[in-house]
# Entry
Amino acid sequence: MASGTTTPPVLHGPTAKEKKYDRQLRLWAASGQAALEEAHLLLVNLGSGVVGVETLKNLVLPGIGQYTILDSATVKEEDLGVNFFLDESSLGNSRGQATCKFLQELNPDVKGHFIAESVEGFISKPQSLKAYSLILVSAPIDPSILSQIQQHATETFVPLFYIHSLGFYAHFSLQLPHTWPIVDTHPDPVSTTDLRLLKPWPELLAFVKGKSAGLDDMNAHDHGHVPYLVLLLYYLEEWKKEHEGKVPSVYKEKNEFRDIVRKGMRSDNAEGGEENFEEAIAAVLKSLNEPTPTSAVKEVFNAEECKNITKDCPNFWIIASAISTFHANTSLLPLPGSLPDMKAQSSDYITLQNLYKSKARADIASVLSTVRSLEKELNRQTSIEESEVEAFCKNAGHIKLIRGRPFHVAKTGEKITWGDRAKTMVNALTDEGSLVLLYIGFLAWDLFCGGDAEKVPGTHDADGDATTLTQTARGIIAKLLTEADKELEEEELETVHEKVGQICQELARAGGAELHNISALTGGLVAQEVIKAITKQYIPVDNTCLFDGVRSVSSVLKI
Amino acid sequence: MERVEVAAAPNGVANSRQRWKYLDKMLTRSGPFSDPDTNFGDPVIQILESRKILVIGAGGLGCEILKNLALSGFKDIHVIDMDTIDVSNLNRQFLFRQADVGRPKAEVAAEFVENRVKGVKITPYCGKIQDKDDDYYRQFHIVVCGLDSIEARRWINATLVGLVDDNADSLKPLIDGGTEGFKGQAKVILPTLTSCIECQLDMHAPRPAVPLCTLATIPRQPQHCIEWAHIMAWEEERKDDILDTDDPEHITWLYQKALKRAQEFNISGVTYSMTQGVVKNIIPAIASTNAIVAASCCNEAFKIVTSTNPFLGDGNNYMMYTGDDSVYTYTWEHLKLDDCPVCGNLAKELEVGRDATLEELVAGFADRPDSQLKKPSIRSEAKSLYIQFPPGLEEATRPNLSKKLSELVEDGEEIAVTDPAFQIAFKYKIKFTS
Ligand SMILES: [Zn+2]
# Structure
């Protein structure tokens, strides 16, 4: 069981690539990096075109496979005051070509392409979007073209981003495929600790019995090195004897239990206490909980895809179904098998660690056997790798399912509808922490110019356009209230109108201008979400993010 | 790649504002939240172009900050960094190329941005911030920090607080950014007016060190074995070599030692990458988080100088950012501490046991999240209790170390603590707990 007899791994230093990417491999590992290197991104670069290029910068650096910039603009003097990936030599040339070249210089491992064609022309060709694994669009764009891209993304399960960066404000919406499960969510290590203290298994109890025998008579050294986990299980058994076999469940009982543990600590020493007991005391409240699956995990178990697995469904659902069976049978999730560090003798700790590891392996074996019988039942062609089942089991408590939703495409003459989100959005209207009014401002902005960069609010008359924009935004709010069948009190509505009016003034003030700082910041946010979408690690924005650079606040809305 | 060296734009608009058409929307138009006293147009543009701004750090954040400030219309930028370029910087420090490895960061970064953005002047200094005196720092209007060292932050913070006098120009806003993986923070400090780095020190609490006895006798984690190799085995077996954490031979040696020890204790998981991470205290870093935090800092610098919109510092002064689970920011006001040793005027209360020794107090200053002083010297109102430098004084005050605190100071007495890393004295008021 111990690894003492295995031969040491062959010694070799890191490869050149591992050295270059060291700081990011510590986050998304080789598997995430491989996924990045497989990806091919399309940037539909419109408007003043900075935010998309800044996004690409943050993706070329970590080594995305390929990118293509679709941009028909010619580099003008004003581009040089806002876009870092252009210089004097680019003036008069294709902006797509020039930005592509300067971005490419950042990383020789990345392949950059450009298409200096209008988006209308490009998209009218059949299959033109087929090559790309992810698409970014920066406003302003003709709404009918945006709809076409959106439809393509929906049908081919390609993640699509729609981005605005205007003055001090920014927005992006992320449309993920309808079913977007994530296994490797990278939860906080503290929250993944599952010690199963309330459901110990016989081998663990046997170890506890051995280690805690004669606790009161132990010498100082031994007493101070009983692992806290053993202490907790020992005192729990004592507690159960006096409480009809029940464990402390409510806060008051846990407090009482904690006092019992505290009384066991010896304080007649130089330190005035014992570290292992301190650790036990500190762990009482957080470790004595029935392990119940989070709502995110239940959502996966209850998903149609989990209940009705098919011959061709993704591996995720087969494993999720097997784990859901495991949970139905045991009311437990597979044990992650990791053990936090604790004051203990090396050998005791290693034994304990191995007890947890073998239990985890047993759980994985049980899930795996269910997976195999499901595969057989469904007549699936290839069997799922054991390592995939293992990784899933280790993170079973933290899996997540996101339901991708299409974002709004604001078109003149077409009503903006909110569906099942209408009521929530109405509540958000008066919520200080929400930036839904800024989102509505951006919808109004799209309606105002209809995707025409020459007609954006504030091009000439900031004040006049702000008034029109405000009216449009108020109209969107009125229709939202009607759809949700809700009303605001007069005073509330006045405040909402005043606030959205200010947002519209600030949007019109920008006159379509990007501020480099805001586009750089938004480019950071979007790139981070692209990395999550490509690596299928960490949890992406669901599904709209807003940034207000006036107050330095952000907000995420599910639209 | 050809470059036109002379600032001669083909259409002769190099000196017109055409290049700044977008920026000028914000510099010439007022907004609903902008300061009513702002003189939009030429006056604001003049101010922006004449303000001297200092950037500390030319690493992941620094590269972004230099680019952002140049494209925010700043014309006179200085940058300090003591490091040279390493290959592992290239995944995010986008002003550097493979061919630049080994060159000073400040110099390469300044050269690159000056070449790319015509009309901006960037003056590099390749060295330590501590090399420069008050007169040097007095010339700037704003300081933007993109550092990974808490000690350097504390040093510049104390320096800027020290510069403040009756003259309004003596107050230099300090904008500080920091990142770790998908997390980061950006904050604005108005020295003496709002919460400073020292007030916020407990937000940068160091990771608790593993006790030496664990390393020596009861290792349980692969990291314990690596720390053992790093701290103990090296000292024992190679004490004549100075450990260079950038030398692959040294890291390989530590890795092999750690691996062997791990096998003795049946501990698994020691890898080369982990060895490097533990020994060099590597913090994961990516381009996107740097972009977010640096841009937030520069957005605040731009607003402070141009008054085009309200800035952090007046009320809310701190933005925390987390990007691993969706996108989350928390913007709030970190309150100034009256007993801050740098910017407050009250001595900080220090609870100590009457029977604790001076030695315990000295050791405690390194661990306390709100002090983090590694080589403290301590004076009471009446006498020197323990002075670490020069050696003569150390020897003379050493006998005090084993004495009880109650023999050395009164309850309620003030002590002054100094540390070679900082140029100020930290004031504490002793309060006996028992
Ligand atoms: Zn302070």
